[in-house]
Known about the structure:
The protein folds into two domains: 6-17 and 88-215, HAD superfamily/HAD-like (Rossmann fold, 3-Layer(aba) Sandwich); 19-82, Orthogonal Bundle (DNA polymerase, domain 1). The strands form two sheets. Strands 5-4-1-6-7-8 form a six-stranded parallel beta sheet, with helices on both faces. Strands 2-3 form a two-stranded antiparallel ribbon. The longest helix is centred in the middle third of the chain and has 15 residues, at 68-82. It has 222 residues and is an alpha/beta fold. Strand 6, helix 8 (170-179) and strand 7 (182-186) form a beta-alpha-beta unit. It has ten helices and eight strands.
Amino acid sequence: MNKYDAVIFDLDGTLLYTLDDVTDSMNYMLGLHNFPLRSREEIRSFVGEGAGQLMERAIPGGRGNPEFEKCLSDYFAHYFSNMQNKTYPFEGITETLKRLHEGSCKLAVVSNKIDSATKELTRSYFGEYIKVAIGQSGKFAAKPAPDTVFQALDELGAEAAKTLYVGDMEIDIETARNSGTVSVAVTWGYRDRRALEENGARYIIDKPQELLGIVGVGSGGW
């Protein structure tokens, strides 16, 4: 038997490298509105709490900007048409998901990315292994609130105490804590190891295949 029955993943910075497409769409929108463009590193520091927070940090005046809602709409319109231009799974992710799936581990994605994009990207890249994908939709409070994790647990038929929540940011560690799942922080995403350690992740991993040992699924000589 596996030590853990289910694994729930964050999406951006955990399963998929999406930063270039997010940056390109953000800068398209900023240029459209004659706002200063943002660097990739600035966008990296802005992401993690959903598109609303990303936009608040990216445009002059944040939510107080009278063009805020139009900026958000323009960003979404561009991103939905361009979100797979430069996006790709991190090295070792697809193989790890395959092993977990073969080991009868229940898999899901819970993200603060808008729900339609979360579902489409999960289906496009990992649909063979992950059937449950939940993003921001207005139905549930966003991470670090536990609501979307609770919904995923319900759809998976899994128990929180027997489930890993895997993410790359402080908000993911907090989400695991709030939901009663076990936190696994990854170092290949958008935060460094020190930040993850300081926020109390239960496990910190440098390669996706390290998840197999935590779950109890054989690595098959990997």
